[in-house]
Structures are given as C-alpha cells and as structure tokens.
Amino acid sequence: MNVERLARYLPFLSWAREYDKESATHDGLAALILTLLLIPQSLAYAMLAGLPPVVGLYASIFPPIAYALLGSSRTLAVGPVAIVALLTASALTPMFEPGSADYIQAALLLALLSGGVMLVMSLLRIGFLINFLSHPVVSGFISASSILIMLSQLRHILGINTQGDTALALLRSTIKALPDTHLPTLAIGGLSLVFLYLARRFGKTGLAALGLSLRKAATLTKAAPLLALLVGALSVHFMHLDQQGVAVVGKVPQALPAFALPVFDLDLVVKLLPLAVLISLVGFIGSVSVAQTFAARRRQRISPNQELLALGGANLITALSGGMPVSGGFSRSVVSYEAGAQTPLAGALSAIGMALTVVFVSPLFESLPRAILAAIIIVAVLTLVDLGQLKRTWQYAWQDGAAMLATMLGVLFFNIEVGILTGLSLSLLLFLWRTSHPHIAVVGQLPGSQHFRNVARFDVVQSESVLSIRVDESLYFPNARYLEDRIAQLIASHPSARHLVLMCSGINLIDASALESLEAITERLHTSGVQLHLSEVKGPVMDQLRRAQFLDQFGGRVFVSHYEALLLLDPITTRRTQDALPTHCPISPESNHLKELN
Amino acid sequence: MNVERLARYLPFLSWAREYDKESATHDGLAALILTLLLIPQSLAYAMLAGLPPVVGLYASIFPPIAYALLGSSRTLAVGPVAIVALLTASALTPMFEPGSADYIQAALLLALLSGGVMLVMSLLRIGFLINFLSHPVVSGFISASSILIMLSQLRHILGINTQGDTALALLRSTIKALPDTHLPTLAIGGLSLVFLYLARRFGKTGLAALGLSLRKAATLTKAAPLLALLVGALSVHFMHLDQQGVAVVGKVPQALPAFALPVFDLDLVVKLLPLAVLISLVGFIGSVSVAQTFAARRRQRISPNQELLALGGANLITALSGGMPVSGGFSRSVVSYEAGAQTPLAGALSAIGMALTVVFVSPLFESLPRAILAAIIIVAVLTLVDLGQLKRTWQYAWQDGAAMLATMLGVLFFNIEVGILTGLSLSLLLFLWRTSHPHIAVVGQLPGSQHFRNVARFDVVQSESVLSIRVDESLYFPNARYLEDRIAQLIASHPSARHLVLMCSGINLIDASALESLEAITERLHTSGVQLHLSEVKGPVMDQLRRAQFLDQFGGRVFVSHYEALLLLDPITTRRTQDALPTHCPISPESNHLKELN
Fold it and tell me: Are residues B447 and B299 in the same domain?
C-alpha cells in the first residue's frame, strides 16, 4: 500500500512529511498555551462528571495523541468537555455513588462503549445517522443541559449538599439547603464567578485597551481560570480555609495513569449502552461542527467517517488509561488555532505538558477550592444557553421551535433521553405533517412570456380546456391521497377542462404510494373525460417512472417544458398569450427586497 | 340554518329534493339485487368474524340506513366486509371463545369503539392521518390478511378443527388434522369452491355468450353464491347430510335485532382500543378509495371527513342493534352501481330486504352448510391476494417493496399490528434515508441557451469563477449536514471559484436545521473567499426565509433565474455561451421514449 492510500486512514502521514522547524515552533508555543487552559478545564469537567479531578488530567494525555494520529482535522483539540461530562454523570449517578471505585470503573466502561460505538459507526460508514439529530433538537439539548449543569454546580458555589436529576428537583433541593450556605465558600465561589465572567466578557477589549494586540489579549484572557485557581489555592493554603470547611480538591495521586482494561460487566454494558450511543452522537456532532468550521478557514476537508474513527480511538485509549469519555472541545480548539497551531502535533505536545503537570504540579492542586472549579464550569457553559435561539427558531418555523422547546422541557424536567427522543419524534411528525398537504398551485401563462405562474399570485392567462397544476413537493405516502383529493376538487371546479398537465419541477421523488395515486387519478380523470399529462419531470424521477408501467398506460404525454405542453394542447390561447403585451414586471417582486451584490 | 348549509352535514338533503319516480324505480331494482348478494356475504363474514350468522344479517340492516343519511358517496354500500371481519376475529379470539355470549358482547363493544374513533377523527378533522398508511403497507396488509383468511377457512372446507393465529400455526394445525378430513364436507366445500371460482372467472363471458347483455350477465354472475347456498341447503335438507356430520349454520333467530347498549367494561375497552383504531383506519381507507372511484365517474365529490362521520354513525348503530363492525364494501358497491342505483336510498331499501329476510327467510338458513360459506369467503378474498404487486413495487422502488414485504411477513408470521407497525416504520425510515443524501448536481450552461443542466448528463459550459449547484430535494434536518459536507467537498475541488450559486428550483422547504447549515456554509465559504448566492427560490420558501436574518446577513443575492445570476457574476462566459451554437438536441432525450398524444 503506498503512502497516499495509507494517509487516508492515518491522516498524520499527509502533514508529517512536510513538517519543518517553523511548524514545530508554532505547535510548541500553542501546546504550552493549550496546557495552561487544559489544566483548569480538565479538573473542572472531571468534577462535573462526578469523578476525581485527576481523571480529567488523565483524559487529557492519551486521547489527544490518538486523535493526532487518526483525526482528519488539523485544529480540533480533544479531551474532557462539559456536555459529555454531564452525560457521564447523568448515566452513572443513578447507579453508583459519585467518586466511588465502582463509579470510576463504570466511567471507564462508558468511555470504552462510546469508543466502540464510534468505531462501529465508522466501519459501517453510518456516520450520516447523526444527520437525524436536527439542529433545533441539538441546540435545545445543549441549552437545557447547560442550565442543568449550572444548577448542579450551585452546590459547590454555596457549599451545600443538593441532590436530584431534574431542574425542578435541583432547584427545590438548592432552595431548601440555602440556610446551610457556607459563607467562606460562597465568598470564594462568588468572587470567582464575578471575576471569570468579567474576564470573559470584557477581558479581551480591556487588555487591548491597555495596549496588547487583540490576539495576545484574547489568549491572555483564556488564562483567567488558571489565575483564579492560583489565587484560590494560595488563599486556601495560607489562610487555612480548608480547615474552616471550604471544600478542596484534596490529594491528587502524583502518578501517570496505569494501562488496564475496564472491568467488563455485561449487565452494566446493557444499562450503559443507550447513554454511550448518546455520548457518541453528541460528541461526534460537536467535534465535526467545530472541525468543519476551522477546516473551511484553510479550505481543508473533514471526513466524518475518519473523525468517528479518531474520536472512537481517543475514547478507547481514555478507557484504557484511567480517563473519562472525551470529545472535541470548541474553546480549546479556538485557543489552539489562535495560538498558531499548525498541526495536531500541538495537541499531542500539550499531552506531554499534561503528563508533566500530573507528575510535578499536582501536589499544588490539593488546596484548590472546588467552588472555583464550579465557577469555571458555570462561566464556560453560560455561553451555551441560548434562549434567543428558541425565539428565532420559533419565528422562522413554529414546527422547529416546538421541537426545540419539547427537547428543552424534556431534558430539564424528565431526563436527557426523554428530551432528545421527544424532540426527535416531534421533528419527524411535524415534518411529515408539513409535507402531507403540499402547496399545490393552479398555474397560468404570464402574458408575453413562456412562463407559468400561480394564478393566485400573478395576473396570468388560463386555458379553458387545459388545467395546469404545479405541486411543490415530492409525492410520497403522506401526501399521495391528498393529491388525489385536491385534483378531484380542482377537476370538479373546472368542468370545461379536457386535459390536466401536472408541472413536476418541484417533484424530486415519486414513491410507490404516489405512483398508485397517479394511476388512480389517471383512471378517475378518464372516467370524467380528462387526460393527464406531465411536464418538466426531473431526470432521476423520469428514470424511476420508466421502471413502472405508468408511462405506457396513462395515455398522456411527458413534456420537457410546460410551455411546450400548452402549445400542443391549446395552441390558440398559448400563442395569443405569448404574443400579448407583458402585464407583469419582468423580474418578480422578490428582487425588490434584496440588496445589491456586495 | 338554511338547507344548503344543513346539506353539508346531512348530504341526503341534496338528493332527496330532486328525488323522483324514475330514481325510485332504479333504486328499488338495485336494492333487490343488492339484497340477494348481501344475504350470503353477511352470513359468511359473520362466520369469518367468529360470530353467529344472524349477526351479519343484523349488521346489514341499520348501518346502510345510517350511511344513506350521512354519507357523501351516492354509491358506497356499507355492511360487513372480509378484512374488518378478520380484524374483529383477530381482536377477540385471543380473549373469548368464538360465538360465546362474551365474544358477541365484545364484538359490539369493538363496533362501538370503532364508531367512536371515526367520529372523533371526523370532529377533530384528522382524517388526513390515514395518509400515513402508505399504499405498499396497506396493499401488503390486505394480501397477507387474505392469505390468513383463506388458511383460517380451510377448516370449514375440510370439516376439521384447527387453531392458531399465524399463518405458520394455521398451516401446521391444518396439516396435522388432515387425516381427520370429513369427506362429505370436503365434497360440498370443494364443489362450491370450484363452482364459485369458475362462476367468478368465466361466468360473465359465458352468460354473455349465451346471449345475455354484458351488464345482465355480470349481475347474474353475482348470484352464484346464492345459488350455491340454495343447492347446498336443499342437499342437506333432503339428504340429511347434517346428521352425517356436515356442519350447518343451525337455528337462526327469526327476530329483528333489539336495540341495547353494549356492556361497557373499561378494561376491555383499553384492550380493544388499538384494534378499534386499526379497524377505523382500514375501514376508512377502503371505503374512501371505493367511494372516490365511483364519484369520479360522475364528477361528484367525496368529503373524507363526512365519510368518517357516516362510517362512524354506521358503526355506532351496528353496535346498538346487535351487529358487527362494518365498512364500505367494494363488490357490493359495484353491484349496486351496475344495477343502476342512483342514490344511497338503494342501500337503505336493501336494508328493508334484509329485515324481511331475517323475519321470513331465516328458517331456510338452518340447513346451510358452513363449508359453502367458507368457499364464498375464500373466492371473495382470492382476488385480494396480489403477489405480482409486490414484484412490481419492488421493481419500481426497492424501498417501497421492502416496506410491503415487511408488512406481509409481519402479518403472516406475527400478527396484524406487528405487520403494520413494521411496515410503517420501514416506510418512514427508508424515506428519510432516501432524502438524507439528495441528488446534488453541478450545473453548467447549455451552449446557445439560457438553460442550466447537470454537467454529468449534458455537454455544458461551466464558469471558472462561479460554481453552480442544483439541489433536488427540500433542505431539512436529515440532509442539512450532508449539504454542508458536499458543498465543502465541491469548493475544495473548485479552487478558482469565487461565487457559489445554489439553484433552488427543487427546494420546497428549508427548515431551521437547514437554515443553520446555510449560515454555516456561508460563513465557511466566506473564510475561503467565496460568496454564496441563491437562484430560483420558490415563493413560499422565500416568504419563510424573509422571517429569518439570513437574507440580510449572508451577503449574497437572490436571483429570479439562474441565468440572471450567471449574467451578473460572470458576464463574459455567460454571454459567449449563450451566443454559441447549440451542441445539444433542443429537446432532451426523455422525449424519445414517449408516445404521441392519444
């Protein structure tokens, strides 16, 4: 096998050959910056997942290396991310005590299963299945999950104990425990929240106003969480706040992860599989959309199946090396890109940084207040809550808005699976509903032209003996009988019609149900003395119709253009209209609303 | 309320006012012929449903009267039909002993529920829901049900006992019981089968050859079942075959049905409801398609919601008057139509015929052999088994063929609900799959024209700087990301492109997912220096796009025609191509395959 073919499966081969010193310098610098961002994120997302913080660090070592070898994106940075951490927690919390040995083992199994699901999807080339997760459903899921995440982190900010899986239960539990608020914890958590929020909101412009370049200001802003952690750790250390009841991370093992197979329990596998599938899909969607955004900037290509393979590999390796389920992260990819990373080697180099962190820096984490990690999580997911999106989606199409709202309510008040399944079912049903009564227009000829337009929208001429109908939808089972009904209606109200020409420019598919309906329509039209014809049938639809008897039996003709049909069936009216003075503006009203080419 | 408005809800008002002596004569004659057909059918379908034969007679009295008052079809004849009888049996047999008092009560409740479901659907105007039962699924269901019906009736022909719900169980049970075959019963059943089959197959042409008019021959042929019953009853009576073990109908109460409410048992209601919904849907589909076929012949209109109301009323009245679930029947409607029925009064008059039959003729039914009723059922449903349809559907579109096959296998080897649900799910999934990777063509200009065609099918000219793409599918969630991916691919392979014009003539809908994808595409194209434009956007799609920010933000233009777009974006190539000599035949190759106007 030559290198080109091999490079399709091991994309790093395509850039490794051209790798030079300059790229190495860029990647090295980016890796350093990335490491500084990854330390607080890894600790925080492990805590969000209900796992010991070191697990987050472990999950930032081998997965980026696996991705660097297999991934088709040159920019995507892989590791623990908020949504996947939440999914992990919601899968495992009902079964085990968070942080317990069983819980940690189950998290590894979950990562293994997610990796397995991704690899299987990649091998079967069924990555396209994610397409069925509609945008409104995904976006509703992310907003609602982020709200759940924030609610679940409130307890660390307030220093209280809460429990519950749903938004309502968490809120109620939090309000009930409010009197127990631990004031020193609240002070640390609240200050961190404010600081991190202001840094994210105004850090870049503020630093730029102080004279830094925009790019440097942006990168420096990303160090805010690290700064917060540093100040927090020092405060705890010197003021002995942990002895006053401020929860801290505690002892972190100063050892690199040991490789081991997760304990394989078939019962547990069956229980975890649905969530593993969900983690795979959600992680995959997130990663691919981030990767595609960056790839477009450099006119590079992302192969979804290769991405599945790479993310699957990353999850397998995290399962074998004591980590947690991982995915591609947006913020870390931005940081890596803006810090000048040229290749996935930047991610792999940051893995070395994380390994060094574990070995040499982790004793410092002992005094890290959990409240600051919670503040980091809350500020990170705050931007993911987009209620304006719900409004915009509803305005654009209430069907999509309804699917989004149903997903959000389901996630918030039941659980994640209920939310997503409800949203998906609603998306599907409302789509079927929309296409079940398609736009069917009677069309007439625009005077002075060969064009045919809706008689309700334009001042057109209709033939007495030929009824022209345009259907703006593929013909398939949900609308097949509707078509029969509408045509019966139209024929009953046009008693002088002897021909009916169906303009098929909007028909992309005619399924077997619709074919039978066309046969029924033909037969019923015959009994009332009308002949059916088709015009402007698309190539693929025509190819398929030829495989049936319909074209031989329906007795009509198929015309390449609607004008040609009318010219043959009612030459006098058609020619007279064509020669008439135009009564319409030559460009349809749409143009007026549009601005000039920029 | 004036009569016109009232007539919308009581359609008989529209014909009752013009009713005259001539119509009455026609209707009276048709009613007589209809009654002669209905007697054997009613007895047979009651037996098929596992009910005493008199129930079938009862179900032929009041339901046609209710339909005559409420129905919008002037031809549809309502009463017991084979498929609905089978559904009744398959609902009740697992719960009660066929023919027992509980069984009969449950059948009444089932009719009441079906009627209720239809009325509710009519009031909510959700009759369109039947559209989701695709033709291949319905057709597969009918073929498989007919096979089940035939297998279940074999025991009456052979004079044996069999049991089982599935095709396999029935076959196995029949083969096991073959040695017990009762030869006198087999002789009667076999002879009837042969006679009825020959009468149906050759009766009409045979009688016509003897000098009868085709119409009279057709009507007379329909009397074959009655003749078979008469001969059978006389043979039993004079040869005392019943004492030799030939099963007969036995005592039939010589009384008109008494009105009573069915016993209302909530547990039973919950159990029967799914089948009641199925009976409603299947009965409704059957009736509407029969009614539409006849309405078209006279350019009359059928109102599906009014039909639901009428069929619902017919089922309620049958439940109150000791009948069984009813629906519109095809063969009886044909007979009624061919016998010259002018209005639904023919059906109502046949009800009087049936009532007279119950009172005066039913003692004669005592000696009717069940084997002949079974033969009548078998020959009636034989025409409903259409395996050729499966082959044709598969050839036309394997996706539809697969849905049909799945329905058939499900009905035959599991049960009716499994079959229909499997078929429906498969229809839906395969439709989504088909639309999830739409036909996307790069188009170029046909020399010497303003038309743009697929570069793979036609010898066209492409602009260097403008990439033209046509999508032949509505843009919605299953294909939104596919579009992103394909456009990324196409842009990567056309590095010189500065503009991309999306030709939207085949796009009937852009949902929120696709809108977000278009936004993502726009942004990614921008980062690689390409501007997106749209052309030939349909009115309704344009209306919807205006409700979003997209048109203001995407930076491109919307062109009324694709030619206009190219003329502005690459005037030199476009004008030169337009002025070039045509290299293509003026009419596309499709036309050659089509025959002349008949």
Answer: no
The residue of A73, A129, A130, A135 whose CB has the most chain B CBs within 10 angstroms, and thus the best one to mutate to test that interface, is A135
Q: Which candidate from B296, B437, B477 shows the least CB-CB separation from A134?
A: B477
Is B132's CB within 8 Å of A432's CB? yes
Q: Are residues A291 and A410 in the same domain?
A: no
Residues of chain B neighbouring A479 (CB-CB closer than 8 A): 131
Which domain does A500 fall in, by range? 440-582
Contact B272, B106 (CB under 8 A): yes
Closest CA to A445 of A558, A590, A571: A571
Nearest CA in chain A to B555: A598
- Summarize pLDDT for B2-26 with one digit per residue, the tens: 666 676 777 777 777 778 888 888 8
As a whole number of angstroms, the distance between CA A52 and CA A98 comes to 9
Q: What is the pLDDT of residue B4?
A: 63
Averaging pLDDT over each range in B13-17, B330-334, B504-508, which range is the top one? B504-508
Contacts of A136 in chain B (CB under 8 A): 512-513
Complex ipTM > 0.90: no
**Taking every pair of C-alpha atoms in chain B, what is the biggest distance, in angstroms?**
99
Beta-bridge partner residues of A452: A445
| Contact residues for B393 (Cβ-Cβ < 8 A; gap 6+) | A512, B136, B139, B400, B401, B404
Same domain, A52 and A181: yes
Residues B32 and B142 reside in one and the same domain: yes
A287 CB neighbours in chain B (<8 A) are: none
Is the CB of A579 inside 8 Å of chain B's CB atoms? no
Instruction: Count CB neighbours of B527 within 10 A.
Output: 15
The answer for residues whose C-beta is within 8 angstroms of residue B163's C-beta and 6 or more apart is B169, B170, B173
DSSP of A507-527: ---B-HHHHHHHHHHHHHHHH
pTM over 0.90: no
Is residue B409, in this structure, part of any structural domain at all? no
Distance, CA of B596 to CA of A116 (rounded, Å): 59
Query: Is A135 at the interface with chain B, CB within 8 A?
Result: yes
Same domain, B213 and B322: yes
